[in-house]
TrEMBL record:
Residues 1-25 are annotated as: Disordered. This is Uncharacterized protein. It comes from Pseudonocardia hierapolitana. InterPro entries: NTF2-like_dom_sf. SUPFAM superfamilies: NTF2-like.
Length: 67
């Protein structure tokens, strides 16, 4: 991204417009998506957490895989 000077004098990166979302109708089918939740515990407290899943698998099941 290239920097752009704005009316207020600030220089910030140029932001590309978001792509339009594709609409899809409900099928009533279940989405089966395995995931992993990982937690880091220090002194009995959760200090970080992360959820990991396969986004491409989800798109494939929804028949929305990019070509």
């Amino acid at each position: 991204m290239r920097p752009v000077a704005h009316a207020d004098g600030a220089v910030r990166p140029e932001v590309s417009p978001r792509r339009k979302r594709r609409e899809m109708s409900a099928t009533g089918k279940a989405l089966v998506l395995p995931y992993a939740a990982l937690y880091t515990v220090r002194d009995g407290l959760i200090v970080s957490a992360g959820n990991y899943w396969d986004g491409l698998e989800a798109l494939d099941q929804l028949r929305q895989t990019p070509t």
